[in-house]
């Protein structure tokens, strides 16, 4: 029985296929997936991968904190100001306005959680312990919203103060009101002033007992039911005297969402200030700088992979969080699929492991395309050595790794220099963002592209002050990296010479002035004027002034730098160790197409079910396959139009071949449900309902 | 001012009450007359209606507080369940211990029983009042609650009166099964003169009342046409007074130079009407603008939303699907659509603007079909495209309609404006106008005149 899988009907919704090898180990550690029988250093790779992932995580957190610092600080300032100032000016109390911060977060919803977490922490540490954050999903009604607020606040009160526990346990559902919260708040603040008198004094600067505001954060403002929000705001505004509420609206779209959601009678109870968080593109740029354009980070992405990841970001979700997830996935995939990725770590470590390469891995290195290319460029004798002597390969390998690290070290500063030079050009011939430039650099020879030529053309007509400023920026970039000192030296030399030209160029311009002065006196016919102008033009083309000469030298120099340092990564020997380049896998995994998977499942059931009996040749229809697959294959054999009766007949024939029993009525029922399923999936569209023999249109 | 007399209440309290409630003397007198002497039975239920900020709750609550009458004041917005209402009433009349006797989910009969029990222990010496603010919310509660409260006096056999306060008329309350008719009582809007009188009350101590009165006159000259809400006007008066006094403090004008002061404040007030009044700028920012910074950008100015590339196209497609008739899709989105006869193309019932009719729902398939034809490159139908649709729904740029067939063919509506779509399409370089049915109709309509 276990041999023949039960694929009787789709109506059962699931097929049970027992795995052939039952003795497979159940508990394989996470690292175990990388360990193969044929591979001895899987655990090493896993360790490296984990270490790298940790650095990625800490780096992204640091970046997030840095970027959010400004907006979070200003928010905290806002809350502090209102928490203290509110009681002093009593007119606002009369108007019953609740201070409200509209925090604009952008549409990248997955990233918001992190921002809110750090906001909560910041507020709790520095402003007030009473911070509540609510999610629209949990608050479908006002009652639930109030309950949520009370739970979070009072629960926190309990955790702060152990004695209160029995009091709050008495809290009944019926008393779940803001007035109950008021009572609780009074007792707690009284206790707070007793427990930490210094702290409250420092916060209030006066002896007002009520000062700690209650902050309610609405994480996803748009998703809230507007009636719920209105009621909640109305209720809270009744208690502003006793309970200093402050709202924070997390808004993904635009501040006008507030006006769309709340009528004037309610929004007049709010005192709204807008806070903008950093845009997600800037966030991505800084993550990109830190993780990808960084020679310290050994794992690299090929141009295709970067394009896939950035494409998902720009075209689909704007979520930095998902971008980092994508990076993590490609990292795992790289370390899993590429055994030589054990060399993808810091320089010293990589050299050490290169010394102790196993025989198998040496063989693998010999099969790397980039290594083979390298071998071809060598002398014949050397080639023989490389192909036969393992020890020699190891030594060469170390040298090549050193070269690779050096290449990266030089590559990024020069890339930044080139970007700073070209990013101010009109129309951005080499891209607005550094990531675009990076992608085109590692993909192909940059200097062979048209865009590069046009960029150089534009650089050749830069004015002097612009050129000097751009070169200064480059010099600064090089200074901060502390490598390529000779390049820096040359650059500074150029800058000095350009500045020394000051006197010369002014002399030149004064010469022009004399000519124009002469022109004014002459003032004759058009022909004369044309002639003099032409003359002037030709003179200029003939004789370049010293600045122009120097400028072309500078451009030549930059060009030579690009040709030397910004070579494509694919040309570097052993680049496969560091570069992950299977963009197809990445696209398949991160940007899935449900319809393709359905089709794959239907036409190749073996692909998903992994049952030997389902393995079939192309073109044949096995009766062992699930009935759904049979119907699908039969429907593929028809043309654009399907006669349902014929289709049913064909289906019955295949099925009866399997069972040779007379269960036609059952089969017909099955067939009917399958047909409906196909319609649901839009594989079929009914064409003519009146006919008894339905004819279907194949989509 | 007619002296208000009402036997059974101390006269000086009544006088001070009348002074504290300017322009509401007649209403005060009528209410007091209705209430009768403290120990007399009053009418079982009174329904008071009038616009926002016409002093309904203020008058009633002032009477209750000044005359120290037993009362329970409940805001119906807060009563998310009827149990909360019962709880508040009982605890106001008989103390929190009585309210604690209510069962977990109290019914109306629980409330009546408990009330009876309590009132037999402590019978009312004075009329007890239950004041229900924003009574229109009662209609959403239990359907039997309102009729029962209207004749609570009979039910509990106690001297109790229910006063309902609402902004809408009684006709909208009446349940279809019929009920006891409460006494209707209207609070009219304040007239302009009355508003001046009331607003002049809170004049600044360091300036003369005459100056403040003239300030209020100027303020009302600007705002009276758009806003008669006393509370809002008062808020605006306080906000802008410092600006009004600026020339006085600098010594540029005297209190008598009303014209000069008017010239100074008028444009400022006009600006306030467009910003602070609409809450485009918060009141704090409005105040600070004189001292620190220029006015921040108003709220509605940030209408632009950064969206991922395909989301923009999805929104455009949704807009077109919502406002174009489905039968014209062939014409707009198929390459070889052939020629279309004008008479057929424009149906008669579609002559009215689609924008007046609002967006129409469309199935997911149609959205995707339009989407694929609007996007110039080939797009795979990936899961992230579908997830973008649902994230657009959570951002309320699209809205989902109909909940019956969620899995098979969910239907959506586009809920953004044409301006928004035009701004987006400018970003992605799509000429939405070419696809808009409305545009063609417009051409067709105007052609005879060109």
Keywords:
heterodimer, A: alpha/beta, five-stranded parallel beta sheet, three-stranded antiparallel beta sheet, about 5% strand, globular, B: about 450 residues, alpha/beta, about 10% strand, disordered C terminus
Uncertain runs of chain B with pLDDT below 50, 5 residues or more? Answer: 445-450
Helix vs. strand class of chain A: alpha/beta
- What's the quaternary structure here? heterodimer
Number of helices of chain B: 22
Strand content of chain B: 5-15%
* β-strand number of chain B: 8
Give me the number of helical elements of chain A.
Answer: 32
The helix fraction of chain A, in percent, is: 55-70%
Average per-residue pLDDT of chain A, rounded, comes to: 78
Low-confidence stretches of chain A are 1-5, 22-26, 157-174, 197-210, 505-520
Instruction: Note the main sheet of chain A.
Output: 5 strands, parallel
Q: Structural class per helix/strand content of chain B?
A: alpha/beta
How does this structure look, described?
Chain A: Belongs to the ORC3 family. Chain A: InterPro entries: ORC3, ORC3_ins, ORC3_N, ORC_WH_C. Chain A: It comes from Cyprinus carpio carpio. Chain A: Keywords: DNA replication, DNA-binding, Nucleus, Phosphoprotein. The complex is a heterodimer of chains A (699) and B (450). Chain A has 699 residues and is α/β, with parallel strands linked by helices. Helices cover 62% and strands 7% of the residues of chain A. Chain A has 32 helices and ten strands. The longest helix of chain A is centred in the N-terminal third of the chain and has 44 residues, at 42-85. Chain B has 450 residues and is α/β, with parallel strands linked by helices. Chain B has helices at residues 11-20, 25-35, 56-66, 82-94, 96-100, 108-121, 145-150, 152-156, 192-199, 209-223, 230-250, 258-274, 283-288, 309-323, 329-333, 342-345, 354-357, 364-374, 383-394, 418-428, 432-435, 437-446, and strands at 45-49, 71-75, 128-133, 160-166, 183-186, 362-363, 398-401, 411-414. In chain B, strands 2-3-4-1-5 form a five-stranded parallel beta sheet, with helices on both faces. In chain B, strands 6-8-7 form a three-stranded antiparallel beta sheet. In chain B, helix 4 runs parallel beside helix 6 (108-121) and helix 10 packs across helix 12 (258-274).
């Amino acid at each position: 029985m276990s041999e023949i899988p039960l694929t009787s009907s789709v109506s059962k919704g699931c097929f049970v296929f027992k795995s052939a090898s039952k003795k497979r180990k159940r508990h394989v550690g996470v690292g175990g997936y990388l360990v193969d029988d044929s591979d001895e250093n899987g655990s090493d790779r896993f360790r490296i991968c984990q270490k790298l992932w940790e650095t990625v995580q800490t780096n992204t957190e640091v970046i997030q904190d840095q970027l959010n610092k400004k907006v979070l600080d200003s928010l905290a300032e806002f809350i502090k100001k209102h928490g203290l100032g509110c009681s002093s000016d009593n007119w606002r109390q009369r108007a019953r306005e609740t201070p409200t911060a509209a925090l604009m977060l952008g549409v990248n919803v997955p990233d918001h959680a992190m921002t809110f977490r750090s906001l909560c922490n910041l507020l709790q540490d520095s402003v007030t312990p009473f911070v509540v954050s609510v999610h629209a999903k949990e608050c479908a009604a006002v009652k639930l919203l109030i309950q949520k607020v009370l739970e979070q606040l009072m629960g926190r009160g309990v955790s702060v103060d152990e004695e209160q526990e029995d009091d709050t346990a008495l809290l009944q559902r019926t008393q779940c009101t803001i007035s109950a919260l008021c009572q609780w708040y009074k007792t707690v603040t009284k206790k707070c002033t007793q427990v930490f008198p210094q702290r409250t004094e420092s916060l209030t600067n006066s002896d007002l007992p009520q000062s700690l505001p209650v902050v309610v954060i609405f994480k996803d403002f748009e998703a809230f039911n507007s009636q719920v929000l209105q009621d909640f705001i109305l209720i809270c505004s009744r208690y502003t005297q006793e309970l200093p509420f402050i709202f924070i609206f997390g808004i993904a779209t635009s501040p006008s969402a507030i006006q769309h959601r709340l009528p004037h009678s309610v929004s007049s109870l709010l005192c709204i200030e807008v806070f903008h968080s950093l845009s997600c593109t800037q966030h991505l740029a800084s993550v990109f700088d830190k993780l990808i354009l960084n020679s310290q980070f050994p794992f690299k992405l090929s141009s295709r992979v970067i394009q896939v990841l950035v494409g998902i970001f720009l075209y689909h979700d704007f979520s930095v969080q998902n971008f980092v997830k994508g990076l993590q996935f490609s990292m795992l995939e790289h370390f899993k699929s590429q055994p030589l990725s054990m060399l993808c770590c810091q320089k010293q470590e990589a050299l050490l492991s290169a010394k102790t390469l196993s025989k198998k891995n040496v063989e693998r290195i010999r099969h790397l395309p980039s290594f083979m290319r390298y071998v071809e460029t060598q002398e014949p004798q050397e080639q023989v050595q490389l192909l036969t002597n393992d020890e020699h390969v190891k030594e060469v390998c170390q040298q090549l790794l050193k070269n690779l690290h050096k290449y990266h070290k030089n590559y990024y500063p020069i890339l930044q220099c080139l970007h700073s030079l070209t990013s101010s050009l009109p129309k951005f011939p080499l891209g607005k963002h550094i990531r675009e430039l990076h992608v085109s650099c590692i993909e192909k020879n940059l200097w062979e592209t048209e865009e590069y030529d046009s960029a150089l053309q534009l650089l050749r007509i830069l004015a002097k002050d612009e050129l000097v400023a751009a070169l200064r920026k480059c010099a600064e970039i090089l200074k901060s990296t502390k490598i390529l000192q000779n390049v820096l030296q040359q650059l500074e030399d150029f800058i000095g010479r350009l500045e020394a030209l000051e006197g010369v160029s002014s002399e030149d311009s004064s010469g022009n002035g004399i000519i124009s002065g002469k022109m004014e006196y002459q003032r004759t016919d058009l022909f004369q004027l044309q002639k003099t102008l032409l003359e002037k033009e030709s003179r200029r083309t003939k004789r370049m002034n010293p600045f122009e000469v120097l400028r072309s030298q500078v451009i030549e120099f930059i060009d030579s730098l690009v040709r030397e340092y910004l070579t494509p990564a694919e040309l570097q020997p052993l680049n496969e160790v560091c570069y992950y380049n299977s963009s197809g896998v990445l696209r398949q995994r991160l940007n899935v197409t449900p319809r393709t998977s359905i089709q794959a499942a239907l036409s190749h059931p073996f692909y998903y079910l992994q049952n030997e009996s389902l393995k079939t040749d192309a073109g044949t229809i096995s009766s062992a396959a699930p009935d759904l697959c049979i119907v699908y294959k039969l429907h593929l054999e028809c043309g654009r139009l399907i006669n349902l009766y014929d289709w049913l007949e064909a289906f019955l024939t295949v099925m009866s071949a399997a069972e040779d029993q007379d269960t036609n009525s059952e089969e017909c029922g099955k067939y009917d449900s399958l047909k409906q399923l196909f319609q649901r999936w839009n594989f079929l569209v009914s064409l003519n309902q009146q006919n008894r023999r339905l004819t279907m249109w194949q989509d | 001012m007619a002296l208000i007399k009402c036997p059974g209440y101390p006269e000086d309290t009544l006088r001070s009450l009348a002074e504290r409630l300017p322009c509401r003397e007649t209403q005060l007198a009528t209410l007091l007359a209705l209430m009768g002497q403290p120990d007399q039975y009053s009418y079982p239920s009174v329904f008071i209606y009038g616009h926002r900020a016409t002093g309904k709750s203020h008058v009633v609550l002032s009477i209750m507080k000044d005359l120290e009458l037993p009362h329970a004041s409940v805001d119906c917005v807060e009563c998310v369940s009827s149990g909360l209402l019962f709880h508040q009433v009982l605890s106001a009349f008989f103390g929190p211990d009585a309210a604690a006797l209510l069962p977990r989910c109290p019914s109306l009969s629980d409330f009546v029983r408990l009330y009876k029990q309590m009132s037999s222990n402590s019978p009312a010496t004075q009329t007890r009042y239950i004041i229900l603010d924003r009574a229109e919310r009662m209609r959403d509660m239990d359907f039997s609650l309102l009729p029962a409260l209207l004749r609570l006096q009979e039910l509990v056999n106690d001297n109790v009166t229910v006063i309902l306060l609402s902004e809408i008329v009684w006709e909208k309350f009446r349940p279809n099964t019929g009920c006891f008719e409460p006494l209707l009582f209207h609070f009219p809007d304040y007239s302009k003169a009355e508003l001046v009188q009331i607003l002049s009350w809170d004049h600044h101590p360091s300036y003369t009342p005459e100056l403040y009165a003239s300030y209020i006159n100027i303020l009302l000259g600007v705002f009276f046409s758009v806003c008669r809400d006393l509370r809002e006007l008062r808020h605006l008066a306080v906000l802008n007074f410092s600006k009004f006094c600026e020339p006085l403090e600098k010594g540029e004008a005297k209190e008598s130079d009303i014209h000069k002061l008017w010239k100074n404040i008028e444009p400022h007030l006009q600006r306030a009407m467009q910003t602070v009044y609409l809450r485009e700028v918060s009141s704090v920012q409005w105040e600070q603008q004189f001292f620190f910074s220029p006015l921040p950008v108003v709220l509605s100015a940030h209408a632009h939303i950064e969206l991922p590339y395909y989301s923009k196209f999805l929104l455009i497609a949704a807009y077109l699907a919502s406002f174009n008739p489905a039968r014209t899709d062939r014409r707009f989105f198929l390459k070889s659509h052939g020629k279309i006869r004008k008479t057929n193309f424009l149906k008669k019932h579609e002559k009215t603007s689609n924008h007046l009719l609002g967006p129409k729902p469309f199935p997911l398939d149609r959205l995707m079909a339009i989407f694929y034809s609007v996007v110039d490159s080939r797009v795979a139908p990936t899961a992230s495209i579908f997830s973008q649709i649902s994230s657009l729904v959570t951002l309320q740029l699209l809205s989902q309609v109909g909940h019956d067939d969620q899995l098979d063919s969910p239907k959506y509506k586009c809920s953004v404006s044409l301006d928004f779509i035009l701004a987006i399409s400018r970003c992605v370089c799509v000429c939405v106008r070419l696809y808009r049915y409305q545009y063609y109709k417009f051409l067709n309509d105007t052609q005879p005149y060109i």
